[in-house]
Amino acid sequence: MASCSPFADSLAALKRERKRWAASSSSEVATPRLAVCLTGQLRLFMVGFPTLVRNLLLDAAANNRVDFFYVGPADLSHARGKSYLLKIPGLRATTIYDQRLLWRNWHNETPIAELLPGAAGGGGNKSRARRPVAQFNLNGLEACPGPLRSRLVQALQSRECLRLIERAEATERVVAPGNRSASRRRYTAVLRARVDVITLQPTAVPLPRIYAPRRVYGSLHDCPPGRLSAHDYLLHGSRDVMGLVLAALDGVHPTTLARSGCDVHALAANRLSRELPEARCVVPTNHSPVASVRGSVSGGCYFLDQEHPPNDGEPQPRLRDLYERADAVARECLGLREKRDGRRPGVGPTCQPRGGWDGDFREDASPWDMATTASNRGAG
């Protein structure tokens, strides 16, 4: 890591903000605290993370005491990226699970996803894989479209991250001035992001004074009428709101999901409108497209894929044009060259091997169909 200066610089910037908060004379009770949930396969997150810090997280860390949590599978990309992940300052806890999740049709009233006890690992080197993390009830969901399993895995990761947050909150007690009794210290807000996401321009999340006491949420894009803002890749909000969103599948039976059109996000939106009808979406003042970095370490290449708003059929942006220090991470730290995915417009060669989709991370497989596979390789 010593020679990987762009990534190290982003970590140093986060550490400076944490030290500033630690030295602050303000009351711990009043300190705004942001929990950042990083979820999913690490892939080439070490390339995009400096950009995410520069465009989003550093501003958030200036206005909040930031803690990180991670939930994802123990696949090849985790083996290659965990040394980078574990250096993130403020990483409180992780859950690393075996990617071979079991999918079965349970013929009883088992909820769609039931977390099993003991799946969570601690931060640092205490993370460990367990199998299975969850039981999935697919009974009655045969007619749902193929990406459903991917959405279920993402919902599972979100729920597990919420459990890590709840455990962290349960271990901390603070005493307010003039009050002798200790109280549980909760996070002011939660930001959930796929760990391979990058933002394409600087964007600020709402300031703490907006979060508290109001119940608000938002993405980096817009607020669609009658729905949660798009949050496949990133969603942030006040603690009460995100507690409901991240636990969208709690106690849900498959027939309920089927009635919602097999839409996990619709379930979350309905629960939010029912239990917190006053919650409101906040439109960001500076919208930002969202992308992910994909590639192959052994193939020595990477490419950028814009995810939201999607631009399939249009030229993809080049990472070096967005933030040259992230491109420097790819070159300096991993020895990667930027190439083009052949399934996108004809703007360059395919990222080898395997046609450019996640390179040689052979456990990656998304989405899955509902028809034949009893277990999946990969997991979000």
Count of alpha/pi helices: 10
How many E-type strands?
Answer: 17
Strand order in the largest sheet: 6-3-2-1-10-13-12-14
The 3D shape can be described as: globular
In terms of DSSP E residues, the strand content is 15-25%
Low-confidence stretches: 117-130, 352-380
Mean pLDDT: 75
Order of helices and strands: HEHEHEEEEEHEEEEHEEHHHEEEHHE
**Helix content bin:** 25-40%
Number of domains: 1
What is the gyration radius calculated from CA atoms? 20 Å
Instruction: State the distance separating the first and last CA atoms.
Output: 27 Å
- Biggest sheet details: 8 strands, mixed
Query: By helix and strand content, what is the structural category?
Result: alpha/beta
Can you characterise this structure?
- The chain has 380 residues and is α/β, with parallel strands linked by helices.
- It has one domain (5-281).
- 31% of the residues lie in helices and 20% in strands.
- The protein contains ten helices and 17 strands.
- It has helices spanning 5-23, 45-63, 76-85, 148-170, 208-211, 239-246, 254-259, 264-275, 319-322, 324-334, and strands spanning 33-39, 65-73, 91-97, 103-104, 113-115, 121-122, 134-137, 173-175, 182-184, 189-194, 197-199, 216-218, 234-238, 280-281, 290-296, 301-308, 337-338.
- Strands 6-3-2-1-10-13-12-14 form an eight-stranded mixed β-sheet, sandwiched between helices.
- The longest helix has 23 residues, at 148-170.
- The chain is globular and about 55 Å long.
- The chain starts with a helix and ends in a 42-residue tail after the last strand.
